[in-house]
Design brief:
Layout: E1 20-21, E2 37-46, E3 52-62, H1 68-74, E4 93-98, E5 104-105, H2 106-111, H3 114-118, E6 121-123, E7 133-137, E8 161-167, H4 179-186, E9 193-194, H5 196-205, E10 212-218, E11 221-227, E12 235-241, E13 245-252, E14 257-265, H6 275-284, H7 288-311, E15 318-325, H8 327-334, H9 339-342, E16 356-357, E17 370-373, H10 383-392, E18 401-405, E19 409-415, E20 420-426, E21 446-452, E22 463-467, E23 475-476, H11 478-491, H12 503-509, H13 511-514, E24 517-520, E25 523-529, E26 541-544, H14 545-568, E27 578-582, H15 583-588, H16 591-597, E28 608-612, H17 614-624, H18 626-638, E29 639-641, H19 650-657
Parallel strand pairs: 2-7, 9-11, 12-15, 15-17, 18-27, 20-29, 21-23, 27-28
Antiparallel strand pairs: 1-5, 2-3, 4-6, 4-7, 8-10, 10-11, 12-13, 13-14, 16-17, 18-19, 19-20, 21-22, 24-25, 25-26
GO molecular function, one term: iron-sulfur cluster binding
Domain 2Fe-2S ferredoxin-type: 37-141
InterPro entries: 2Fe-2S_ferredoxin-like_sf, 2Fe-2S_ferredoxin-type, ATPase_NBD, Beta-grasp_dom_sf, Corrinoid_activation_enz, Raco-like_middle, Raco-like_middle_sf, RACo_C
């Protein structure tokens, strides 16, 4: 196309969104910018066991020019995303099935094959709705692979939730004590307080029950009076409110026994895969806070319903919940503006949130059920880490221990047996599959284990893959990414700087693997899975040079964090006696691979322990023991927070940690 002498040959409006280019032959937008456009969403979904269910169809009307992703999010239709609709994660894949030809962006070209583009596949966050469209939405991963249990400690069973069965004497003219006095006098070892709900219940319960009732007590608050002896019915739910995954565990408080556990994807996911994008959403749209709060409540309510159904428990018999979440997730579920958490100097509204009614966070349990929230040490070392420290006894063990919760925001705690230090490192979304070319969450089809044999006689045997669900590989999750990089470093196809070696050098190092080095566009890649010998590299599952860089930056941020904490206490790497890898990602990460890429100190792998869902374990402990709950609050005074951004040596330390040392 020639360029006229009087200016550029494009309209600024056509390229207002980065990467937008017109598809050859595409018609110009037909809408004049007024009124509304009609979008018809056909939403596909699956049951918990992966069985497809009939799709649902939703019609929405939106202003012209909004993205399809935003239009769906505004109307409660979940499209997969980890970047919150900013065009960087390439996860919001949709298919346009009717409507005029739609533009193709350079990001679409990188994401889809030519056949898929011709079939109408696009990234929803880059497609502006300028005309009526019919949109197919693929199934959303609602049950990612998650750790539901973790390392914990035995506790003395002394819950805040108590039940006391009493048989009261009836009122007489000689004994005209109030109903409340009659009940509190019978439980004279506690100074009970009662609210209006209980006063309303007293008059309707005592007499029909012949004054034989059970008092329901939380700490010293009388929350209900039930007819007869119901002392055996005492339930509570522990929640690990993660940014990506939420886990709920139903407990029988009378015995301390877990009855059911379930996990699901956080329904806030369409707003972004990390806390920064969700904070940004509230800053850009005043209505986003309410929608994020509603999404968090809906996620907790869904899990509560599932665990109660599985255990055959009436939700009205659940009297207390404990929530362990990072500072942003806690603020969002409580409806507290998280903006101060996202801008310097990163200040929380409160370190110890108040105990509230469970109904205030969207839960339909007992009408007076309470929700306890773990305290946070800082804006980026939140209640989930406090719960994890409680579960692992970081303040009780005299060994030198390193606690690492690997994720988008990586929290690190170091103890030398006397002093506790904590910090947070911005690792980015690589470990969740974000910003990775073929990245995906840990769900069916994700490669989670990679083994490489540089001396294999058959090329097909040179790479062995472990795939979640034992199905055809669809992408690469965080543990698979770490394995793939670690294996290529081990055999020499990735040098210390993280660069894929030239083809000729690769043939000399590992002939069985050299043919897997290819190009996608102008970028060098290593092919992990090629469905057929004729499949184009762009349609394979591969590790790209950019993916390696993303992992380098993530692991360097984390290793810089724990290195500086060790330096703060005058310790060397070899002084660490145990490394605890917490969270779902830490549970499935290969210790050997973590050591090889420098994600953790170079220690014998037996010193590196997968701690699992320790946040959930800490939440259980808080429900089963008031002593442990007090211990969680005490950690606020015991742990010193170290702000990495204040360290003048942070940048130098970060650069030093980028390399893959042999």
């Amino acid at each position: 196309m020639s360029r006229p002498p009087d200016g550029p040959d494009f309209s600024l409006a056509d390229v207002a969104r980065e990467g937008l280019i017109e598809r050859p032959g595409a018609e110009p937008p037909s809408h004049d910018g007024t009124g509304r456009v009609d979008l018809s969403f056909t939403v596909h979904s699956t049951t918990d066991d992966g069985t497809e269910v009939p799709p649902t169809v939703r019609g929405v009307r939106v202003p012209p020019g909004v993205t399809v992703f935003d239009a769906a999010s505004w109307n409660g239709i979940a499209i997969d995303s980890t970047c919150g609709g900013h065009g960087t994660c390439h996860k919001c894949r949709i298919q346009i099935t009717s409507g005029a030809d739609v533009p193709v962006t350079r990001h679409d070209v990188r994401t889809f094959s030519p056949d898929q583009l011709s079939a109408g596949w696009r990234l929803g966050c880059l497609l502006h709705a300028t005309r009526d469209l019919a949109v197919e939405v693929p199934p959303l991963t609602t049950r990612p692979k998650a750790a539901t249990v973790g390392i914990g400690r035995q506790v003395i069973l002394r819950p805040a939730l108590q039940k006391r069965y009493v048989e009261l004497t009836e009122a007489t003219l000689a004994d005209q004590r109030t109903d409340l006095a009659r009940l509190t006098d019978a439980i004279d070892d506690l100074e009970l307080t009662a609210d209006l709900h209980v006063l309303r219940r007293l008059a309707t319960v005592l007499r029909p029950a012949d004054f034989k009732v059970t008092a329901v007590i939380l700490d010293e608050a009388l929350v209900d009076v039930e007819p007869g002896d119901t002392t055996a019915i005492r339930y509570a739910i522990a929640f690990d409110l993660g940014t990506t995954t939420v886990v709920g565990t139903l407990l029988d408080v009378s015995t301390g026994t877990p009855l059911a556990v379930a996990s699901t994807l956080n329904a806030q996911q369409p707003f972004g895969g990390d806390v920064i994008t969700r904070i940004s959403a509230t800053m850009m749209d005043p209505a986003a806070l309410g929608r994020l709060q509603q999404a968090a409540g809906a996620t907790l309510a869904d899990l509560a319903g599932r665990v109660c159904r599985e255990a055959g428990v009436d939700p009205s018999d659940v009297y207390e919940v404990a929530v362990a979440g990072n500072a942003t997730m806690t603020a969002l579920v409580l409806g507290i503006d998280p903006e101060p958490l996202g801008v310097a100097p990163f200040v929380m509204s409160v370190s110890q949130p108040p105990t509230v009614l469970a109904s205030e966070i969207g839960l339909s349990l007992h009408p007076r059920a309470r929700a306890f929230f773990f305290p946070a040490l800082g804006a980026y070392v939140g209640g989930d880490i406090v719960a994890g420290m409680l579960a692992t006894g970081m303040d009780r063990d005299k060994r030198t221990r390193l606690f690492i919760d690997v994720g988008t925001n990586c929290e690190i705690v170091l103890s030398d047996g006397e002093t506790l230090l904590s910090t947070a490192a911005p690792a980015g979304p690589a470990f969740e599959g974000g910003a990775i070319r073929c990245g995906m969450r840990a769900a069916d089809g994700a490669i989670e284990v990679v083994k490489v044999d540089a001396h294999a006689e058959e090329p097909d045997a040179a790479v062995t893959l472990g795939v979640i669900g034992d199905v055809e590989p669809r992408g690469l999750c965080g543990s698979g990414l770490v394995d793939a990089v670690a294996e290529l470093v081990r055999v020499g196809l990735l040098d210390a700087s993280g660069r894929l070696v030239p083809d000729e050098e690769a043939k000399g190092i590992a002939p069985a693997l050299a043919d897997r080095l290819s190009l996608v566009g102008e970028e060098r890649v290593f092919l992990l899975h090629r469905p057929t010998p004729d499949t184009e590299p762009a349609e394979c599952v591969y590790l790209s040079q950019r993916d390696v860089r993303e992992l380098q930056f993530a692991k360097a941020a984390i290793s810089t964090g724990w290195s500086l904490l060790l330096e703060e206490l005058g310790l060397e790497h070899r002084d660490v006696q145990q490394v605890l890898l917490a969270g779902s990602f830490g549970s499935y990460l290969s210790p050997a691979s973590a050591v090889r890429i420098g994600l953790v100190p170079r220690l014998p792998v037996l010193r590196i322990v997968a701690a699992g869902n320790v946040a959930g374990e800490g939440a259980k402990m808080a429900l089963l023991s008031v002593r442990e709950r007090a211990g969680a609050l005490a950690l606020l005074e015991e742990v010193q927070y170290v702000e990495l951004s204040d360290r003048p040596d942070f940048n130098d330390a970060f650069v030093e940690q980028l390399s893959f040392r042999p």
